[in-house]
Write a structure and sequence with these properties.
This protein has about 270 residues and is α/β, with parallel strands linked by helices. It has 7 helices and 9 strands. About 40% of the residues lie in helices and about 25% in strands. It starts with a helix and ends with a helix.
Length: about 270
């Protein structure tokens, strides 16, 4: 009986010892897991000088590779600082060219002294044709004669702005005010990276001169000064078929004539 009790007591001690070993082992594993840390390359955080070993361009379809490299200023043999502002400045320069919808510069390879780069670009679409909508046929032909947009050109903000300014000037010279021009790009799904440029034009209102009045003129009569306002003329009720349209250029010339008349005659 005593022997049986001793065996039970021994087994109990063995079980407790095993449990303690397992528990301590688990605690040790968890402690080690918590103490792990990631070792990073210190050169990625500390700016260093590198010589550009090579530059390749991806994504360009119409723009020459060498043009893109030169525009970025990331030419082979140049020294740049990485990390630093050199790559960011190159991206800004390429965006300023207006030719690209997206620009990304990647590091292909880097060593202690050299760096190889990849310039990835997404080009803006090239023009197939442009259309002018919302105007009379005769006006459309006159506007087309003034526009210098040619098929194949990249549809950039500068191209659109120049065309819109030309249309605005055309209507201003015709005596129209509050002209509105909206431009939209219509992709051509059957052609790779090609699009149409649509100009939707609202000519606005055409101002007519009812009469010309002067204030503060003591030396000369309204009639005298009105004659000096040529080529700007007021509308006369008996001239039904001869409407006098207000043009800014005529107004500016008329004011200059009046000032010259005053200077000449004191």
């Amino acid at each position: 009986m005593n022997l049986k009790n001793e065996v039970h007591s021994l087994l109990k001690r063995i079980f407790i010892a095993s449990f303690c070993v397992l528990t301590f082992g688990t605690f040790t594993y968890e402690l080690k897991a918590q103490d792990t840390f990631e070792i990073t390359d210190p050169t990625q955080n500390t700016p260093q000088e590198y010589t550009i070993k090579s530059v390749t361009v991806q994504g360009n379809e119409s723009t020459r590779e060498q043009f893109i490299i030169n525009a970025s200023s990331l030419t082979v043999g140049r020294q740049i600082t990485y990390p630093g502002e050199d790559i960011a400045d190159a991206i800004k320069r390429l965006f300023r060219s207006g030719l690209f919808a997206d620009v990304e510069i990647l590091i292909e390879e880097i060593s202690l002294s050299d760096i190889s780069l990849i310039i990835k670009v997404t080009e803006k679409p090239r023009l197939i044709e442009y259309k002018i909508e919302g105007v009379k046929r005769s006006q459309r032909k006159d506007i087309e004669a003034l526009l210098t947009i040619t098929p194949g050109v990249a549809i950039t903000e500068a191209v659109i702005a120049k065309a819109k300014n030309t249309i605005h000037r055309f209507y201003k010279e015709k005596g129209y005010w509050h002209t509105k021009v909206e431009a939209s790009i219509e992709d051509a799904p059957d052609l790779n990276n090609r699009a149409r440029l649509i100009f939707d034009v609202d000519a606005g209102v055409r101002l007519e001169i009812k009469d010309i009045k002067f204030e503060g003129n003591e030396a000369y009569s309204d009639r005298k000064l009105t004659k000096k306002m040529k080529p700007l003329k007021e509308d006369k009720w008996w001239k039904i078929l001869s409407k006098k349209v207000y043009k800014q250029s005529d107004y500016d010339e008329g004011i200059a004539n009046v000032l010259a008349y005053y200077r000449k005659n004191g």
